[in-house]
Amino acid sequence: MFKLFPSFSNSLKARITLLTLAIALFVFLSLMLFAGQTLRPLLKELLAAQQFSTVSLVAAEINEALLFRLKSLDKLAKRLTPAARASGKIDQVLLDGPFDDGDLFNGGIIVIDAQGDILAETPVAATRRGINVKDRDYFKSVMAQGKPVISPPLTGKKSQRPLVVMSVPVRDAQQDRVIGVLAGMIDLSQPNFMDRLTENRYARTGETFLVTPQTRTIVSTSDKKRVMEVLPAPGVSPWIDRFMAGYEGSTVTVNPHGLEVLVSVKQVPIAGWYASVILSTKEAYAPINQVRRTVILILTPLACLMIGGLIWWMLRRQLAPLMAATSTLTTLATSNQPLVPLPITRHDEVGALIGGFNHLLDTLAQRQHALQESKEKLLLMASVFTHASEVIMITAVDGSIIDTNEAFTRITGYSRDEVRGKNPRLLNSGRQSAEFYRAMWQRIATEGEWHGEIWNKRKNGDLYAAMLTISAVRDEAGKVRHYVALSSDISQIKAHEQQLEQIANFDSLTRLPNRLLLGDRMQQALIQAKRRGQPLAVVFLDLDGFKAVNDQYGHDAGDHLLVEIAGRMKQVLREGDTLARLGGDEFVAVLLDVADVKVCEPMLNRLLAAAAQPVHFGSAVLQVSASMGVTFYPQVMDAEADQLLRQADQAMYRAKLTGKNRYHVFVPELPWKSPLAGRLQGSTAPDADIGRKG
Fold first, then answer.
1. In which band, very low, low, confident or very high, does the pLDDT at 22 lie, cut at 50, 70 and 90?
2. pTM greater than the 0.85 cutoff
3. What is the distance between the alpha carbons of residues 649 and 651, in angstroms, rounded to a whole number?
4. What is the DSSP letter of 513?
């Protein structure tokens, strides 16, 4: 059988591509090796400079901290005069010093006399008084030289804890003879100021050390377990011996564990210590190694693929005219649907034949393109239908559900299979009447669309508000084929509107109607009073002694008192009456269908009693009274709601002036036809004090 294409091993394109890739790979790896060897010394120099800068900062901070502590000790030592010692006030001098919080010397401070006995200490609980330390170098050196000393790490005689002792001389009154030593102790086993600098690791594996060359002992380090560890003896590690001799700088060496490390050292001059930062070169050179691994494992294969693909494509393009005719003829021999057009390389009979063949291919490609576009449109419509956040429901003309999207299931709780073939009436909440639905479908029939709010019911029985749009889908002849409903859950919007209405119309503290809602209810009450011929009463109530409660017990107590009294007064009123809070300690009650004063009097007395009842707030008992002003409607001159409030307010002030804890009735000129005219004018004088509680 004739082989149109040669095997891969015999392919000219394959051999040229592989040879080019091999050359490119060799050049690329050579460049990487050269770049790595060039960058490594530069990176070492940069890291060494950065690391030395870091250790210099650490050494400087340690030096400043030690110097500050020596100065503080010296300042305190000057206060330890022979007079203070003779009077036994050494302990008081220590307590008055700036060291009682343990921040500077977490191991405490001691005062030592010339014989080496500890005379005083702080904190006193350390119980070191009476111990003799004349054999300690920090005592002998200060007594001999009269200069401050910072000791190497040592073990406390009684505490057996690792300590660093800072000592200064205590002189006589003439400041020319050393009579004792003042020593501050830093407990290395407890948190101290050096930890803040050495516990912070440098990079991921780096460590910071403080070392005293005198005893080759570690003072502080990132690893607390190594404190007081003695470094190898002289001659074991040349680089350690070099640092002990006072070298400052950075170097790469091998540590006692066999690891190559980058070491930077800086002296702490005041103590004779040195600070060092040690970082593994494995981590130090990690960026170069990471870049090298990335290039070798990722970039190199990708580059080979890209170069190989490009070379393959170029060769194929150059050789395509040679294989085009043969490929097409072979394809025609095995299939009636050639997939690619033939290139026209010559304008002769063969070219004319190929041109006719290409025209056929072009026609087929156009048809395929049209089919592809239709497929993409269908996929897009299906994606929109499935992933839309709004509910989408498609029904037949008879109302049976054809399909729903995922949002329908999420919002209603019904799956697609549960509702398919059923009527959307299963979502009916019962809150809309049959007339509502008739009007809705009439609108759809005439205009082809309906839009509005509706209440639906979920599968679990919960009701929710929805914004619904129903559209009729017609065919080319204008006949309705389907209905499409789009809806979204607006329950949260409805709840927010209700919350705003609550805030606008009700007092936030007592939950009673506020001034705005009171005005609306009074207008409605006046209209009903005129229509039904039944009088009403407006009561203006102000609490007596409320300011004193606020001043004595605070605003929380005042708020609690207002809430309790408001609840009690609301309970003594009838169902149709209104109790509102104007603000502060002022309330207004609107009493409906009040035939006369005698009918109103029991309610007024109940209001006075409710306001006067004690209220418990914690261990305190709060008690106030109320002064009330009362006015009635209708009157001779037609009165508005604001005028009635002013009348009741005026009467309330009369009640306060006449003794408080009572009500006062404002009696205007009443119409002779009014039901109140004879009852009020025949029994009381205008503006009469006709009620008192208690």
1. confident
2. no
3. 5
4. B
